[in-house]
Amino acid sequence: MVGAGGLVVSIIAFAAGAILKWALKNPTQHGVNLSTVGEILMVVGVVGAVLAIIIMIAANIRRRRTVIDDGRGNVSRRVDSEY
Q1: Which DSSP string corresponds to 28-81?
Q2: Phi-psi map region of 54: left, alpha, beta (phi>0 left; psi -120 to 50 alpha)
Q3: CB 39 within 8 A of CB 19
Q4: Are 6 and 48 contacting, i.e. CB atoms less than 8 angstroms apart?
């Protein structure tokens, strides 16, 4: 669940960055360039999404799948976790 939650947060950060970058009419207020803040949020969103996907893939690789065949056609499958 950590990877999926991180992916959601990354998408939200990217969306907020895109809004700050392209949807505002006056990007500079009180000495802060909101367009630049939007670009930073979009970069953070992309990096966070990539890391979240890597975490989800790594979590899936850690699972072991065991297949037991008793020789008479009976096959049982089991997924073991290493948590």
Answers
A1: EETTEEHHHHHHHHHHHHHHHHHHHHHHHHHHHHT-EEEEEE-SSS-EEEEEE-
A2: alpha
A3: no
A4: yes
Per residue in 24-64, pLDDT (tens digit) is: 877 777 778 888 889 999 999 999 999 999 888 887 766 66
pTM exceeds 0.85 = no
Query: What is the number of domains present in the chain?
Result: 1
Instruction: Tell me phi and psi for residue 6, to 5 degrees.
Output: -65, -35
Q: How far is residue 52's CA from residue 47's CA, in Å, rounded to a whole number?
A: 9
What is the span of the domain harbouring residue 36? 2-80
